[in-house]
Model the fold of this input.
Amino acid sequence: MRKTRAKLRDPEDPIGKFLEGDKPVLVVGFGRSGRSAAELLADVGCRVVVSELMDREDFTDMPGKLHPGIDIRWGGHPLDLAEGHGLVVLSPGVPMDSEFVRRAVKCGATVIGEMELAYRLSRSPWVAITGTNGKSTTTTLLGEFARVGKIPSAVGGNLGTPVTEMILREGGISWFIVEVSSFQLETVERFHPAVGVLLNISPDHLDRYAGEGDYIEAKANIFRNMEEEDWAVVNADDPAVMRMAQNIRPRLFPFSRKKNLKQGVVFTSGWIVIRDGEKEIRVIHSGEIRLVGKHNLENCLAAVAAGWKMGIQPSSMARAMETFPGLEHRMEPVAFFRGVPIYNDSKGTNVGATMRSLEGLHSDVILIMGGKDKGTSFDPLRGPISRKVSRLILIGESGERMRDALEDTAPIFMAGNLNEAVKEAIDWARPGNEILFSPASSSFDMFNSFEERGKIFKKLVGRYIGGAE
Done:
């Protein structure tokens, strides 16, 4: 699969003794990230033991060919398996405070995450992009900048291709462009991007974190090991981001949709403009950008700031923005039916994402929300829904709590499932309405992923508008 074996970025890295030692390395979780971590470790020459919670017969994503150095233990995480390993590598969904991980630490193991392992076994510089919303679009757009600018780059991370899988294919790569989640940032030790991008911060994953402060602390780890010669690309319009930026070492290169910054990337007179020292460069007019919505304009500003610090020419960035259509399930146009546009925003898995999506639409929105309840407050939605939404359709585990929080903001219909919600929205819609599916909740109460949820939404839309023609 690879041309040469990965080597440690730092030859003195203490995990080297575990990679070359007699004890097997333990990987916890055999999802896509865990599987690629196991393959990378085996490629380096390690014996690898994988602990997977699911039973073998229930696991549907088994690779056709597995490295012979990998031994998978199915059906749970028995505590005795946590013993006897020098190095333990966690998949992103495995919390550090689980009993299994605590036992490994107690037995003297060094515990790191899959992203940390990838960084330490890579040689090229990284651009790391995090934030509550917009990560995937910004990461993919930045990858397009590099492609158009003919800068060899690997794009992935939390949005798709695991970083350890990217390392297996590192040959000829000048930059890693990586979306990183708060879960991945929990296990940072030496992770040190040359460019760190923080898009925004709003409460999320409170089903995992004790409070918003813990979530913000995890996000702050993106800057933890960065130095004065590195660049932090930060959102000057987000107060929480700027509070964090006051206490970090790297140089700041902010972006803003609202402020007239002297240094950074700004939006002024309809143009995205780079201001860096004595340079002021018009990159592109907003009318030429294919992406729509104010939130996507902010993603473009962030990508331009990061691209500039990577050395990508503004002309290459402009050409990419002229043609980049956006990502599936992220304010994706699905249909235009009897004068009503219909959007799939299944990736809107938190309150902030749904607020940003609503901001880019007109009034008279028919909004479908609901899913797995992550424990966050829905109160921030009250203002946007009062201003923009003419009918609110709620589904899922979080639906009742949403109804209680939002009952006086718009007429509410409680649907039993997504099928019923789509039918109600299409039956209700009239010219001048817009239908938006942006759940403000994760998918795991009814679906396996936001991707599955979005695909089903699109099929349902096709079924109902086809039958109504």
